[in-house]
Amino acid sequence: MTAAENTITMTKQEDDVPFVDIQTKEEVEEDDDDFEDPSTSRKTVVVPVTPTVIKKEEHVFSPELLKQYYSRLFPYDFIYQWLSYNDASSSQQIFSRREFSFTIEPFPGEEIYIRYQSFSNEMELREAIMKRQPHKIDIGAVFNHPPKDKNTVHNFTTVQRELVFDIDLTDYDEIRNCGCTGAKICPKCWTFMNMAVKVIDAGLKEDFGFEKVTWFYSGRRGVHAWVSDESARMLSNEARSAIANYFEVSRPTPKKKPCEGKPSKIPGVFYPDLVSFVSYIRSRR
Ligand SMILES: [Zn+2]
Questions:
Q1: Choosing from 99, 162, 171, 229, which is the catalytic residue?
Q2: 99: annotated active-site residue
Q3: Ligand 1 centre and the CA of 171: distance in Å?
Q4: How many Å from the N-terminal Cα to the C-terminal Cα in the chain?
Q5: CATH assignment at residue 208
Q6: 3-class DSSP state for residue 150?
Q7: Spatial distance between the Cα atoms of 218 and 210, rounded to a whole number of angstroms
Q8: What is the number of structural domains in the chain?
Q9: Could you report the per-residue pLDDT of 129-186, keeping only the tens digit for each?
Q10: Contact 215, 224 (CB under 8 A)
């Protein structure tokens, strides 16, 4: 599990039905950004907001369906409310200072990544999305100024962002005995994700006192946890890493240093609920 950068993404999916994705992205921020975690990596989580019928044979992307989706189905109000935190006094400031990035594809196979988009309200967000028809929408951090004004202000920097964890089934490759590897998943190995969600969700709430913990399917091989409590949004990079480390019981690192080829981090003292979680997991085998 890694502490991750938070983004949201519209992607082309296997069944031509657009999704809203929550995605972590490689941090390419070159500006002062106190909360950036250098360990982040680009991965994708999907929030299915439309009914899906998977037809693996049909992979043709439809711009017209995407347009219909943005016009009729995209949850602008939900996105706005969520990222405003229902705080009348500060909601507009928080929302208007949030970075959005669009990935557009003006021609098939030609992707353009547009950073530092920001919007004053839900209507501006809707208008921009309708105009750009982005194939992906990344939700970034909240800055001290609207990101669209980045080049006209001094000391442009991050002031808050959600605490995001990224859990991939590839983290379990060494103990997956169902035959799956890499991005391949099946109901059997997905049990690891079910267990991880239960353990980490309880730990975040009971051990750290967070309340606003939301889980998203990555769309590929794992899940993302978004912790949106204000205290979580204000955490330093060091605190984010420390929380991630707290949950880490074993970290196989065969692809790194040879001396770390075995599970390398089994603490002598487990955190309080680990024993009960182990019992729970064993009861589900
Ligand atoms: Zn499997």
A1: 99
A2: yes
A3: 13
A4: 22
A5: 3.90.920.10
A6: helix
A7: 22
A8: 1
A9: 999 999 989 899 999 999 999 999 999 999 999 999 999 998 888 888 899 988 889 9
A10: yes
